[in-house]
Design goal:
Chain A: One of its GO terms (cellular component) is ATP-binding cassette (ABC) transporter complex. The structure holds 2 protein chains of 2 kinds. By secondary structure, chain A is mainly α. Chain A is built from 10 helices and 2 strands; from the N terminus they run αααααββααααα. Chain B is flat. Classes of the chains: A mainly alpha, B mainly alpha. The interface between A and B is large, with 64 and 53 residues.
């Protein structure tokens, strides 16, 4: 660890390329904090958006017309408006309307900026997931659902145990794409001062005056994060494959 | 006698096809606008009863709408320019991806992956901070205003996405076309420009329009780096009206509505084209 720091220090002295994150403990801590926040945001929003997406897809197939209409409006609205404006709308618009709570003698908003970022990003990605899951569900043959019904499954149980596992396998490539997009969209949380990677890196380059070097670090970070996510999803895809089924 | 034959007898997974949401009750853009207008109206009448002296949220929006809509038009201008730049560059990059020269194809593959996998906002920062604010060439100084740099920043991811679309479309043309062209002694360049690309335009149009909708929605990111487009103006209008917290929701709601009214018809049209051009 020390050797890496020394190497980058020498690089700075000899070439003027100031990768301060790698030898300055303070900058490194800040960068690591940002990375942790990005990972936290990504994992929570991916999980939440999957759950909301699956629930939405279930509701879209429900007999109630009102429920279907509500889900469709949700999908259409969230897909066709900019995610940044959605975040602002939630954080500023709805955040200021909620009552504040008293904590240790200070009035703080009910939901913090991190929580609002998670909520709005999850809803944004969930709108896409609903469509992806629905298309997967449509690919599951009607006869399979009927067989489940014949075996006495309720609608909900058949959905959880039979339809969804098959649908997920079919729509994984599309889902993969959307989750990569979601990971990239977490940078928007920067706009409401969530200290994620972009925010931390911007702070570092404003203080250390090394915009170019930090930009390289930033792009490399997101490249690696996206690469890891894609690799994980491909592994999952392979692990879930049913031999001889589908394509 | 015609009998209703079951389409799929066996439990075989059907081909996966991402179909756009069809609204069971269609909301046309116009009626959506009217609905939103009514909602804002209802909200503002509730407000008017409590404090008659201050402007209601609706009045604020009406008062400032010329300015805000001008900001929105600026967003659209940026998106159109970025799309133009990105499409031209993306076409070149896409053809480079298909090139026979291994080195060129590999290099352009790396460029494509790089710009496709970086977040839009990071690329925007990349261009904003690393491109100088003016360029001096042959003793003439060309200033580069913020919004032009932002346009370039949006054009980069567009370029990579368009390149992928071009590559996918050309790859999807049956290889017999290549062989037929070869047997008619077309050169590779002639085959590409006279035979492949004209056939591909139909396939490329729906994904290309999808990319455009994405760019149109991404232009608001320019407000983060200080271009005075709609979202920046919205924040300024909010400050000008005394920064009342209850104004946030209607003002940002108005921005959402503008983008929705612009992007939803594009989306519907894309879906229609997709259905019509579906490769069977």
């Amino acid at each position: 660890m020390q050797a890496i720091g020394n190497w980058f220090q020498r690089l700075y002295e000899s070439t003027g390329l100031n990768f301060s994150v790698f030898y300055d403990a303070y900058d490194w801590d800040r960068y690591l904090g940002g990375l942790k926040m990005t990972l936290f945001l990504s994992v929570t929003t991916i999980m939440l958006s999957l759950v909301i997406g699956a629930a939405g897809a279930l509701m879209q197939g429900s007999p109630s017309r009102l429920l279907r209409l509500a889900v469709n409006i949700f999908v259409v609205v969230f897909r066709n408006t900019p995610p940044l404006v959605q975040i602002f709308f939630f954080y500023f618009g709805l955040g200021t309307m909620l009552p504040a709570v008293e904590t240790a003698g200070m009035r703080v908003p009910l939901l913090s900026n991190v929580q609002w970022a998670i909520i709005s990003l999850s809803l944004f990605a969930a709108a896409f997931n609903v469509e992806i899951f629905r298309s997967g569900i449509e690919a599951v043959p009607r006869t399979t659902v009927e067989a489940a019904e014949a075996l006495g499954y309720t609608r909900f149980k058949a959905y959880i145990h039979i339809v969804l596992p098959l649908a997920i396998r079919v729509c994984l490539p599309a889902l993969n794409n959307n989750l990569v997009n979601l990971l990239k969209t977490t940078t928007l949380a920067y706009a409401i001062a969530v200290p994620e990677t972009l925010y931390a890196v911007k702070q570092i380059w404003s203080e250390s005056q090394n915009v170019f070097e930090m930009m390289v670090v930033l792009l490399a970070t997101y490249g690696i994060l996206v690469g890891v996510l894609v690799w994980l999803m491909h592994r999952w895809e392979r692990a879930m494959r049913i031999p001889g089924y589908a394509r | 006698m015609k009998t209703a034959e079951p389409v799929h007898r066996l439990a075989v997974l059907l081909p996966y096809r991402l179909a756009p949401t069809r609204m069971s009750v269609r909301i046309s853009p116009l009626s959506a606008a009217i609905l939103c207008f009514c909602a804002v109206m209802a909200a503002s009448t509730a407000w008017a009863q409590t404090a008659p002296t201050m402007l209601s949220p609706l009045q604020v929006i009406v008062k400032w709408s010329p300015l805000l809509l001008r900001g929105f038009a600026f967003n659209i201008l940026i998106s159109l320019l970025a799309m133009l730049l990105g499409t031209v560059a993306g076409l070149g990059l896409g053809l480079a991806l298909l090139s026979q020269y291994r080195l060129l194809a590999t290099a352009s593959w790396f460029v494509t992956q790089f710009f496709r996998n970086a977040p839009w906002l990071v690329l925007l920062f990349f261009v904003m901070f690393l491109v100088p604010f003016q360029i001096t060439m042959f003793n003439t100084t060309v200033p580069l205003p913020d919004w032009i740099k932002a346009t370039v920043g949006f054009a980069l991811p567009v370029m990579a996405n368009v390149a992928e679309v071009v590559r996918g479309a050309v790859r999807s043309v049956p290889s017999t076309q290549w062989e037929a062209a070869e047997s008619l002694s077309f050169t590779r360049r002639q085959t590409m420009w006279l035979i492949m690309l004209p056939q591909c335009i139909k396939r490329m149009l729906p994904p290309w329009m999808n990319i455009y909708a994405l760019v149109a929605m991404a232009t608001v990111l320019a407000s983060i780096v200080g271009v005075s487009e709609m979202l920046t103006l919205t924040a300024q209008v909010h400050a000008a009206e005394g920064g009342r917290p209850e104004l946030f929701a209607p003002l940002y709601g108005f921005a959402l509505l503008c983008f929705f009214l612009y992007c939803y018809p594009i989306n519907l049209w894309t879906a229609r084209l997709e259905r019509r051009f579906r490769v069977r």
